[in-house]
Automatic annotation (TrEMBL):
Domain Polyphosphate kinase N-terminal: 7-110
Protein name, per record: Polyphosphate kinase
Catalytic activity line of the entry: [phosphate](n) + ATP = [phosphate](n+1) + ADP
Residues noted as binding Mg(2+) in the record, renumbered to the chain: 377, 407
Claim: ATP-binding is one of the keywords in the record: yes
CDD domains the UniProt entry points to: PLDc_EcPPK1_C1_like
InterPro entries: PP_kinase, PP_kinase_C_1, PP_kinase_middle, PP_kinase_middle_dom_sf, PPK_C_dom2, PPK_N_dom, PPK_N_dom_sf
Organism: Carboxylicivirga mesophila
Domain Polyphosphate kinase middle: 121-307
Active site: 437
Cofactor(s), by name: Mg(2+)
Length: 697
């Protein structure tokens, strides 16, 4: 990308992030199965990218008049496919050149292409195919000129065949190739088949290869020339043309099925597939050259998440045990702990159990008469939802805003919304034209119609106990009335957008967030122009909005020092005259950095906000997001310590340069891994609190 452009393309930038994920699979300091996990994450990320982003580019190439916001779609799509093709070559080298040999060293053999010279294995495969696989095999011969169908993200083998000659006289007659497709039955069998143990090694093979073994039996009367793994990803956009009229929930429910049958976003294929086979597939499935994605021998490698470890927990990364802060344990009650002082919990370093405890306490506290919560993504067996249903059974008035447009979680959210409605919970569904991405909960006490001492929770991450063990986020507990007033006003706004709430603490998109951000950047600019220290530190998953980036460029040119910690999409171009005071850092480690934190120096009177919002166009323009100030000095110091560790990380952090390269940080300092260091810091803090308590007693 020419660096004369002041903004990186958001999707080319995202590919840079996913390449950084792939790099973790090369890290020899990580256990084998942690490296395998990063191969799975890379593949999973890419599937979603093609379903959503590439599908949109495809549509823009076909109907440019309908996508004025996506200029040069065809050029960008070609660039995306070129980059992804290059990454897949690197992926294969890592897998075959590093991961497979490391498996062998550790007593695990994964046989590729079904090859094994062990008699025990061949007998097992023969028996497995004939007794376990055949009932699920449905081979389909493809006919020229007839359109066929592949299900979204399902794994298939494309097979090339020749009809067998019936007599020797026709042996030399040129035969016409036939082509077939067969679905790999991963819904009925695990992707990795365990073979008999031989020579103290644990042996496995891909289910695909067990299927390949039996292809001659599935196609009697044909000679099988070869087979190659293929799959199609389909457009994940639900295609709701009008959100403002009719029943939005019913439209979403009906359109969920379209995901399985939507237009193709990409045909993934083995790079070794012969051109005639590929061309026949393109014709049969209406695939255009620009939709081809060249990969390695195997598709759906997100299945590495489930690769069996016969030595578990050996060869795996062991996440540190979540800390249960002494003060919360000693208080016994979340409400009592929050009364004493405001709290910030840092997940996954701290246990997410306290959020469940907060909701369960609200459900049983006789003084609490109302609970309000937003729901964006919840766990599949959600304790959060369970606590809310428990509250409803306890005669509490419970209101839950459910965002049914949360992509890939629509079905889960609709299911839990129905369960909560059955329990008597009031459900507010999506707002047409907007997604509600704010993460907040209220436990409200009232007497004689007036609100008494009540409690609030705001977070950078979802009410999801599963992802809270994997994502690095922050949750804030308070009983400060100023926060509660704003949150009650926001909940009223979610029900009726005709009146906007007056805000004292919160920054909310669609109301005051953009204006307040600009105001604070301008203040840092003025400080710098007046010879004082202007400083901004922003941590987010993505930054794209051109108006906000341009304001950061203006601040940089005024002398404001700016540190960005951006995990994913970064459209800001560093190392240019207009961005010379901006440093962009990317941190990828075993926990997914998911938090959004904004720090403004304010002439040594630091302002800090935690937020649900990235600076992507969707967050700023099309979502309801919250940003909330952290004002207690000890809480600010705690979070600033974490940010300083991340800025000093010289192991997992990378600088993003003007070409979107992830540049390793060269340092003579002692190696520092921020995630590891912050966990130790929190342990030490808790130990100090515990010891001080003992002394006071």
């Amino acid at each position: 990308m020419p660096i004369e452009q002041q903004f990186f393309n958001r999707d080319i930038s995202w590919l840079s992030f996913n390449h950084r994920v792939l790099e973790e699979a090369k890290d020899t300091s990580l256990p084998l199965f942690e490296r395998l996990k990063f191969l799975a994450i890379y593949s999973n990320n890419l599937d979603e990218f093609y379903k959503v982003r590439v599908a949109e580019y495809r549509n823009a190439t076909l109907h440019p008049e309908s996508y004025p916001d996506i200029p040069h779609a065809k050029v960008t799509l070609e660039k995306i496919n070129t980059i992804v093709g290059r990454h897949w070559i690197e992926y294969s080298k890592i897998f075959k050149g590093q991961i497979l040999p490391l498996m062998e060293e550790n007593g695990i053999t994964l046989h590729l292409d079904g090859y094994s010279n062990k008699t025990e294995h061949m007998q097992f495969i023969d028996n497995f195919f004939n007794t376990e696989l055949i009932p699920y095999c449905q081979p389909v011969l493809l006919n020229k000129g007839t359109k066929s169908f592949m299900r979204d993200n399902r794994l298939y083998l494309a097979v090339k065949l020749y009809r067998k000659h019936k007599n020797r006289d026709k042996k030399n007659k040129k035969r016409r190739a036939r082509y077939a497709l067969i679905k790999v039955p991963t819904n009925d069998h695990p992707r990795f088949i365990k073979l008999p143990q031989v020579d103290k090694q644990h042996h496995y093979m891909f289910l695909d290869d067990a299927l390949r073994y039996g292809l001659p039996e599935l196609f009697p009367g044909y000679d099988v020339v070869g087979s190659w793994g293929v799959k199609i990803t389909r457009n994940a956009d639900l295609g709701i043309e009008d959100e403002f009229w009719g029943d939005l929930v019913e439209k979403i429910r009906k359109n969920l099925a379209l995901r399985k049958t939507g237009t193709p976003a990409g045909l993934y294929h083995d790079r070794a597939i012969p051109s005639d086979v590929l061309n026949f597939l393109m014709d049969s499935f209406d695939i255009k050259p620009i939709e081809l994605v060249e990969t390695g021998s195997y598709q759906n490698l997100h299945d590495f998440f489930s690769f069996p470890n016969p030595f578990s927990p050996k060869l795996e990364w062991q996440a540190p045990k979540p800390i249960k802060p002494f003060e919360l344990e000693e208080a016994g009650s979340m409400f009592e702990a929050i009364k004493r002082k405001e709290r910030v919990l840092h997940y996954p370093y701290h246990s997410f159990d306290y959020v469940i405890q907060f909701l369960r306490e609200a459900a049983t506290d006789e003084k609490v008469d109302e609970i309000k919560v937003t729901q964006y993504r919840v766990a599949s067996n959600s304790e959060v939802v369970g606590a809310l249903i428990f509250a409803a059974h306890n005669k509490k008035k419970v209101t839950v805003f459910v965002e049914v447009k949360a992509r890939f979680d629509e079905e889960n959210n609709l299911y839990f919304a129905r369960q909560m409605e059955k329990a008597g919970i009031k459900i507010i569904y999506s707002i047409p034209g907007l997604k509600v991405h704010a993460k907040m909960a209220l436990a409200i006490r009232r007497a004689n119609g007036e609100r008494k001492r009540s409690f609030a929770y705001l977070s950078t991450g979802n009410f999801n106990e599963k992802t809270a063990r994997l994502y690095a986020d922050h949750g804030f507990f308070t009983c400060n009335d100023a926060y509660l007033d704003d949150m009650e006003g926001l909940f009223k706004y979610l029900e009726d957008q005709s009146t906007k709430p007056k805000l004292n603490k919160l920054l909310i998109t669609q109301i005051n967030l953009r204006k307040q951000i600009m105001k604070r950047i301008n203040r840092e600019i003025e400080l710098s122009k007046n010879g004082k220290q202007g400083y901004i530190l922003l941590k987010m998953n993505g930054i794209q909005n051109k108006n906000l980036i341009s304001k950061l460029y203006e601040a940089s040119q005024a002398g404001v020092k700016i540190d960005l910690i951006v995990r994913g999409i970064c459209c800001l171009v560093p190392n240019q005259p207009y961005s010379e005071n901006i440093r962009v850092l990317r941190l990828v480690d075993s926990f997914l950095e998911h938090a959004r934190i904004w720090v403004f120096g304010n002439n040594n009177n630091t302002e800090m906000f935690l937020s649900s919002a990235d600076w992507l166009n969707r967050n700023i323009n099309r979502r309801i997001e919250t940003a909330f100030p952290i004002e207690q000095p000890e809480l600010k110091a705690e979070i600033l310590t974490m940010l300083e560790m991340q800025l000093a990380d010289n192991v997992k952090a990378r600088n993003i340069d003007e070409y979107l390269n992830n540049v390793r940080i060269e340092s003579n300092s002692k190696p520092l891994k921020a995630q590891q260091a912050f966990y130790q810091y929190l342990l030490q803090l808790d130990t100090i609190v515990r010891e001080d308590s003992k002394k006071q007693k």
